[in-house]
Amino acid sequence: MVRHAEIAAAVCMFLGGVIGCAGDGAGPKAPAPQPWEQPNLERPIVDGNQEGLELRVWAVEDQDALIAELIETYKGRPTPMLDSERTSWRGSGLWAISVPIDELTLARGRMRLIGVEQQDWLGLMPAWREVVPGRRVDEGAMIARPGGTMRSPAGRFRMLARCWTVPGSDGPEMQVEMTVQLQRLHQRPSTQGLSIDATIPILEQGENFAELTSGFLMQPGEALVLVPVQPGFDPESVLGAEPKVDAGPPVPAVPTVGEAMLTSVELGGVTPVRRRAIIVLIARLPSEFRLLSLSGGEEAWR
User: Fold this and answer.
1) At what angle do helices 64-74 and 101-110 cross, to 10 degrees?
2) Are 29 and 273 in contact (CB under 8 A)?
């Protein structure tokens, strides 16, 4: 199992060009994992019958056609999110799709990953915590939002979440709440911040984007996949277009929040190189939900 700090380092390494991350991304690419090194996505990354949320990160480079194929294959499937929330997330640069667990290995195998897939076991999280570390931005960077553009303070984009198990009509389900935050950096400490036990709650450590806030129920057998793409990304057009030789990806004028968090475009080479971090969330649930009874025993909710 990869620790959360290693996930953060991996996101920085894969996306490259990130302020505060070592390296400039110009080094040699990590070799693709051999078939025997590829993880089995149908099995949780922990031993035993633990329940909780599992995180996986697929880092890819310049694969518009493969991204389009992934989205086109599953965009018609319902997701745990409300349609209005899904539309809002898509407009902010994160396209949410639902992929059956038994097809996840095949979907991952079609993508050409940069290095080995990153994994983290989050478990049950009744309190908010950082689950996906994103890229840093300079003060004054322009970010596209639904109502226009914002001038960003110095900070770091990240995804926060909390989750717990609840009984459902067909068995246990997982209640998940997520939001994207621009965590403030380089702030002068206040008197309150210097006082004893004056820890700032995580939701107050930056700006939380309402358009990227959602709460939903996840069921076993489905994975929620978040793909960072431009709001106008059209998979049908991409799949039907003639391949362009040495054209490179277009350079976005003003990135959305989702793109700024999980996408980078490097301009150092002959053609621009775009890198993306695709987020995969899997709910691992028991076969039944158990409640403590007044007699001190357990009652099963199937």
Assistant:
1) 160
2) no
pTM as predicted: 0.78
Whether 60 and 292 have beta carbons less than 8 Å apart is answered as no
Domain boundaries, the chain: 4-22+47-189+200-286
Q: Which secondary structure element, helix H or strand E, spans residue 12, and what is its range?
A: helix 4-15
Span 82-128, pLDDT tens digits: 999 999 999 999 999 999 999 998 999 888 888 888 899 999 999 99
How far is Cα 57 from Cα 245, in angstroms, rounded to an integer? 29
Tell me what pLDDT residue 31 has: 41
Percentages helix, strand, coil for the chain (3-state, rounded to 5) are 20, 40, 40
Measured distance CA(49)–CA(67) in Å, rounded: 33
Contact 69, 209 (CB under 8 A): no
CA distance 38 to 104: 12
Distance separating alpha carbons of residues 156 and 301, to the nearest angstrom = 42
pLDDT of residue 171: 87
How many contiguous H segments (helices) and E segments (strands) does the chain have? Answer: 7, 14
